[in-house]
Known about the structure:
The protein has 623 residues and is an alpha+beta fold. The protein has 24 helices and 22 strands.
Amino acid sequence: MIKKTNDFLSGWIMTLIGSIFLIISFILPRLGYAKGIYFALVTLFICGLPLIYLSIHRLIYNKGINKISSALLISMAMIAAILIGDLFAAGEVAFIMEFGALLEDMTTRKARKGLNNLISLLPKMGRVIRNNQVIEIPYEEIITSDIVRVLPGERIPIDGVIIKGETSVDQSVITGESLPIDKETGDFVFSGTINQFGAIDLRATNVGNDSSIKKLILLVENAEKNQAPTQRIADKWASYLVPIALLIALLTYLFTMNITRAVTILVVFCPCALVLATPTAIMAAIGQATKQGVLIKSGAALETMSKVTTIAFDKTGTLTFGNLEVSHIIPLDKLYDKNKLLSLTASIEAFSTHPIAKAILNYAKSTSAKLMEIDSFNMISGKGVSANLGGVKYLVGNEQFLKEQGIFIEDEHIIDMLNKLKSQGNAIVLIADFEKILGIIALSDTIRPDSKSTISKLHKLGTKTILLTGDNQMTAEHISKNISISSVFSDLLPEEKVNEIEKIKTHSVVCMVGDGVNDAPALKTAHVGISMGAMGSDIAIEASDIALMNEDISKIAYLKWLSVATVKTIKSAITLSMVINFLAILLSVMGILNPTTGALVHNGGSCLVVLLAALLYDKKYVE
């Protein structure tokens, strides 16, 4: 009952009513009606009671020094103003404090807009096929392996794999892709996305809190619960300032014997602006980041990101797409042109499960290359394959495999060609019959278009960049040369990546960016870990401090800019609040400010700090 009354009184409507009575109490005495000052009692009831309730609640439930809060100091100042007969000052203190709290709440709600948008994407119901009947149940009751039917225009309630039907899905909320993505049987779909055209049946894979959209919501909610170090310091300062304020007020009274000056010091000394500076800025920054598809798990991560001097990148899936694509087809026999060489190789590789084989086969299908029937197939793990086709035995694999089968490459021109392709980061597939080499197919991992510009922006921000990869040295150096990365460490196992991060930590604040399970230890070891693609490896996401909803590498430079802008905003707000407080205390001791004007100055500073944070939410990224 008490809490409900308190919440009602501290709302916008009652606070505005309180402001009307406060204005009346100011005007009427100046028009000759002295008893008009008593209208301020209504303001004290509306705005003062929630303040006293908050003070008492914190005294009872907070631990240690945290029992002493800014609300307690303001309550003391309000009561002191009442005792000296300055009802208007008491009402003004209560009103402006309540008004400032409402402004802070408004900024926080604005910052939570991105989270609220995510929550609104959670469908309330799902259509499940059980016992050959289609039933609608709350989405929370859908279990793994359920068959879920989604009609055109409906939001997909769970993560799942299409087992029947074809459609296009608007998955912009998850991946940021502006155009709908075509989906067919066997394709994966995310919860929270929209089925645009055909009806589809899905087999549920991730449900409830494990679904994509729910994980994003939980990440943002957890971010709001975790305070930044600066915020904890500010809270501690606020607690220590209360007894200091009492001491200065007491000394002022003893030296001047002026109770009004002592009360004014209590009014202006409250560290409201100091306490508000960090949480409002952090909330605004997290809100802006959410709009950009960046999930920051804690204020501490954001603050640490501003201090990062070195950013280490994994290669595959981070700076590159992580998908091998055919880059060169080079016939070396006059009987074979590019199309015939591709057709032959794809026909043989169609029976292999190796990623390189799949890449060649996919490329052949995309070019409508004709596949031929082969007579026999044999795979030698890690080396290559052999096959009979039209009475001829063919070999497809690496140089070592061909050597073991008696095929040696002695032509200097071919050797130079192979060395050049390797230096460019290509994986090499050689095709031969049992007499000679017929051709070369080279495959490469495509560099993301924004990788080079992102590295350049980070360098301009004074950040060193490092490549940590398990790939060979030639591939790593090719990537680093193309995107101008600062340093390269290649042929690294997961534990070796951790060792490199540990070495960097001895002289730099380091951030690690990765996307896979093998990156998780390095992500956890770094001062800040960023996982690429929030829908990627669950282990990588859990290990990271910041997750990107899509695979936009350019967001790394944005994150660095946002973290620096946030810390600058916090420092500016704290400096401003301390300057205002210092000047207000000085003017109070001198008797220039009274409780009324002191309340205006003090709470004006608090509102200014909240305004600075609100501006951060809409601050534009300057590249």
